[in-house]
Specification:
The chain is of the alpha+beta class. 12% of the residues lie in helices and 30% in strands. The chain has one domain. Strands 1, 2, 3, 4 and 5 form a 5-stranded mixed sheet that branches. The protein starts with a strand and ends with a strand. Pfam families: Il2rg.
Length: 89
């Protein structure tokens, strides 16, 4: 389990998240809380908004690596994920 501080701009938070979890900077990621609700980072990864606006402190989230499947029909969004557990202080 990793501890992260969400009191920074989202662009820096996501960059650090990928670096510390061993992911390439070009990979798409998502966060899911313990109830299965997605944070919906897609399209916000370069935002200058505070990460704390999307994340609740002292809560655990699972990091999901999102992989698009090229054979999927254009209207379908097929994804596979791998995960890492983390807690935000």
């Amino acid at each position: 389990m990793e501890l992260f501080n969400p009191d920074c701009q989202l662009i820096h938070f996501v960059t650090n998240l990928k670096l510390r979890c061993g992911l390439d900077s070009t990979e798409q990621v998502e966060l899911m809380d313990s109830s299965g609700t997605l944070v919906k980072l897609e399209g916000r990864e370069r935002s200058l908004s505070r990460a704390s606006a999307l994340l609740t402190g002292r809560r655990s989230y699972m990091l999901l690596r999102v992989c698009s499947v090229p054979e999927a029909k254009p209207r379908c969004r097929t994804r596979t994920v791998s995960s890492t557990n983390m807690t935000f202080e």
